[in-house]
Amino acid sequence: MRPFPSASGCTKSAERLKTEINTSSHHLIRRLKLVLATLHCLILVSPCMAQSTQPVHPATTYRNPVIAGDFADPSVIRVGDTYYAVGTSSEWGPAFPIYSSRDLINWTYLGPVFTKLPTWTMGSFWAPELYHRDGTFYVYYTARRKTDKHSFIGVATTQDLRQGFTDHGLLLEWTSEAIDPFIIADNNKRYITWKAYGLDKGKSIEILGAELAPDGLRVTGKAFTLLKAEQTDWEAGGTEGQALFKRGRYYYMLYSGNTCCGPQCNYQVGMARAETLQGPWEKFVGNPVLVGDDTWKCPGHGTVVTTPDNRYFYLHHAYNGVDFTFTGRQGVLSELVWNEQTQWPAFRYGSSTPAQAESPLGDRQKPTAGLSASFADNADHLPWVWDVSLPAPVFTVQDGNLQLMNTTGNLAGSFLGLVIQKGTYTFSVDIRPQVNLLQSICLYGDANNALGLGVRADSLELWQVKDGIRQVIKRQVRTKNLPHATLQLRSYAGRFYEFGSLTDDGTFQRLTEAPLDGSFLPRWDRAPRLGISVSGQQKGISLIRSVSMTYN
């Protein structure tokens, strides 16, 4: 375990922070959190540790989120010196995005688990769980079954994450619902755990477990109970999102309770431990141990991973306090430290997700980057997503343009989207206008809720689809029939939007005097996506020359 500062150093740090708090009320809340972290250090430091005479150097830090944008229910594993994470995609395809990292704070998108959706599924692609054994990667995932619209658990495998997974179909069907799989090995046996009874009337929500076959592709054991939800203030909404790991004599579990999603969420994290997987499990008396604040709301549902120097980190999700549901539940990182006397862990920075914290491996964090793609350069690398409830969009990059076919009767048109990483941004699209095709910048919540600005050869059209009704907000004649048009969207805190176009000299001309309120766009369990759409009475293809995104 990484050593903590000496008791003397911690005491001096606490005194210094106390003085600063008394003299600087403007930063009171932030400094109180630092005081709590320092006092936590005093509690955990060994009284026998030699006092350091070395100068203290500022630690390299990171800021949350570490995986920006909608990335709920993250699962993380370490294979060698590389970390891999996968998260919920909900109603977006392709299903389950995968990222890799060498330091837990700088992540690179690798691709999806499934480019083609498993045949038994229809949506609700939730809570995937990565597992690695003997050179094979497994993903245990939740999806809604076509035949009865119930959510159950499937399994897929691969030897190369960049090549996608081979699906092995339905693994676990349990009454009306089985979600949130988590895999753990015990005495050379593999076990699956899951949340059950969430939709079964009259049955308490439980976290159950059962043994898997040696190949990990079948459930062979009899189900047993690990935890039951209790009618406490923080567990009344249920118990789910369990993450298990072993340290010393105990198995430990972090689990989440209450309402995960949406503007009324109150998600929180508790912990429990047991000497065997079958229990009995002892819940920590100080639960909940991780709660929301004004910076990061409704934290929960993640997994624990260790670094090579044996530090423990919990990669989980939370809503940004400013952008909230408009950017979704983002991937955030919180460190666990240990009280060796009680053998319970605690979160290093207190009971809330840290805004800033010490880097796991001392690396520096790269800033959130936008994107810029010119299709004249045959840029076909963008991580496009789409609505899985509709036929997959047909598109290609050809002749210097992104060509998206107008193939659906969807009110918002055929849509290609991107994950929004921050709520304040500028998005621009350079388009070759056509007579009978409306090519739009589009904010897309689902098939019945979208907002966009489109261009035809002779006009601009600001439109919305709200609760399944399409309405033209404003139409403006194009005074110059130029061969291209640059449409632009400016977003503030993810909720307020200004649509307009750029003149030849780069001046932004908005279509409305006041920004539009897009609060109707976020869905219960996911954030909107931003991209392009094409629609019209006749079949056609878009001619998009470039797209760019800058975050402010």
UniProtKB/TrEMBL annotation:
Cross-referenced InterPro entries: Glyco_hydro_43 (IPR006710), Glyco_hydro_beta-prop_sf (IPR023296), Glycosyl_Hydrlase_43 (IPR051795)
One Pfam entry name: Glyco_hydro_43
GO molecular function: hydrolase activity, hydrolyzing O-glycosyl compounds
Keyword Hydrolase applies: yes
Active site annotation, chain numbering: D73 (proton acceptor), E240 (proton donor)
SUPFAM superfamilies: Arabinanase/levansucrase/invertase
UniProt KW keywords: Glycosidase, Hydrolase
Site description Important for catalytic activity, responsible for pKa modulation of the active site Glu and correct orientation of both the proton donor and substrate, residues in chain: D180
GO terms of biological process kind: carbohydrate metabolic process
Record keyword Hydrolase present: yes
Superkingdom of origin organism: Bacteria
PANTHER family found in the cross-reference section: BETA-XYLOSIDASE, ENDO-ARABINASE
Entry's family note: Belongs to the glycosyl hydrolase 43 family.
Protein name (Swiss-Prot/TrEMBL): Beta-xylosidase
